[in-house]
Amino acid sequence: MPTEPLEYRPATGLLADLPLLKVETAGPVVHLRLNRPDKRNAMSEAMVRQLHTAFVNLPADARVVVISGEGGHFSAGLDLSEVTEQSVAEGIFHSRLWHAAFDQIQFGPVPVIAVLHGAVVGGGLELAATAHLRVAEASAFYALPEGQRGIFVGGSGSARIPRLIGVARMTDMMLTGRVLDAAEGQAAGLTNYLVGNGEGLAKAFELARKVAANAPLSNYAVTQALPRIAQMAQADGLFVESLMSAIAQGDEAAKRRVRDFLAKRVGKVGKER
Ligand code: 1HE
C-alpha cells in the first residue's frame, strides 16, 4: 500500500455545489466536512438535504468517505431555530428527511469513517452513529439534550445509538442530560479509536487507506450484511452469511487476493507490506 500523503483536491460537479458542506477527494477517499462552523455545524434542513445529495452522488471511484466538522465542534445537532414553529405533520416529514439522508450514509455503497471532536450532540451524535467507524479526538463530548429541550431524537438515534452503547446508557443520557467525555465514549463503545486533539483526521485518513485497499464487495458485505445478520435469528443469519460469503468469494477481486497470498506476493496477518 502506498504511504505517501494523498493530495486532497476540491470535489468537482454536484459535490462542489453544496455550500453547507466542503467536499474534497483524493483518489478513492472522499473527505466531507460539515461547513457551518459559526453555528457549530448545527444541522439545518438544507444541510440534511445536502448530506443526502452528497451521499447519493459519490464519485464512481469513491471507496471510502471520511466525514468531519469544520471549526471547533463536530456538530451541535438539530438547528433549533428551525423547529419552534413546526407543526406535528412538518415534524414527522422533517424527521423522515433525516432518516432518508442518514440511511443513505449507513446503507450507501462505501464505508464511512466519522472524525469526532468537540460537541457531538443530539443530531450530531445521530449522524456519528450512521458511520461504520468512529475516531474521536480527546476534545469530543457526547450528549443527547433532546430530553432537556422537550423533544425526542428524530434523526434515527433511537435505532442506531442503542446498538452502539445500549438502551440503558442512552436512557441515562436522555433522562438526566449526562454528558460523556471522549474517554467515556470510547469505553462505552461509541468510538473505535481515541486520539489526541488535532490527530483525528490523520488517523481517519490512515484507516481510510486501509479500507480503500480492500475489495469493494468485501467492504460492502461488512457494512451491509454484517449488521443485518447480527439482527436476524441465528439460522436465518447463517443462511445469509453463506450467500454473502459465496458472492464475495466468487468475485474476481477475491480470487486474485487469495492467489496473491498463496504465491506469497502479499504479507501475512499483522505483517502486511
Ligand atoms: C445553534 C445550535 C443549534 C449552537 N441550533 N443554533 N442541540 C443542542 O441543544 C445543542 C445546543 N448548542 C450548545 O449547547 C452549544 O452551542 C455548544 C456546546 C454546541 C457549543 O458551544 P459554544 O460556546 O462553542 O457556541 P455557542 O456560543 O453556544 O453557539 C454559537 C452559535 O451557534 C450561536 O449563535 P449566534 O447567532 O449567537 O452566534 C448559537 O445559537 C448557535 N447554535 N447550537 C441552532 N443546535 C433530528 S432530531 C435531533 C434533535 C437534536 O439534535 S436536539 C439537540 C440540539
Structure characteristics:
273 residues; alpha/beta; 2-enoyl-CoA Hydratase, Chain A, domain 1; Lyase 2-enoyl-coa Hydratase, Chain  A, domain 2; 2 domains; three-stranded mixed beta sheet; 11 helices; 47% helix; binds 3-methylmercaptopropionate-CoA (MMPA-CoA)
SSE blueprint:
Layout: E1 9-10, E2 21-26, E3 29-34, H1 45-56, E4 64-69, H2 88-106, E5 112-116, E6 119-121, H3 123-130, E7 133-137, E8 141-143, H4 146-149, H5 157-165, H6 167-176, E9 180-181, H7 182-188, E10 193-195, H8 200-213, H9 216-231, H10 234-250, H11 252-262
Parallel strand pairs: 3-4, 4-5, 5-7, 6-8, 7-10
Antiparallel strand pairs: 1-2, 2-3, 8-9
The structure holds 3-methylmercaptopropionate-CoA (MMPA-CoA) (1HE).
3-methylmercaptopropionate-CoA (MMPA-CoA) binds next to helix 2, strand 6 and helix 4.
Task: Give a description of the structure.
By secondary structure, the chain is α/β, with parallel strands linked by helices. The chain has two domains: 9-212, 2-enoyl-CoA Hydratase, Chain A, domain 1 (Alpha-Beta Complex), CATH 3.90.226.10; 216-262, Lyase 2-enoyl-coa Hydratase, Chain  A, domain 2, CATH 1.10.12.10. The protein is built from eleven helices and ten strands. The model has no long low-confidence stretch (mean pLDDT 94). Residues 39-40, 42, 73, 76-81, 95, 98, 119, 121-123, 145-146, 149, 153-155 line the site of 3-methylmercaptopropionate-CoA (MMPA-CoA).
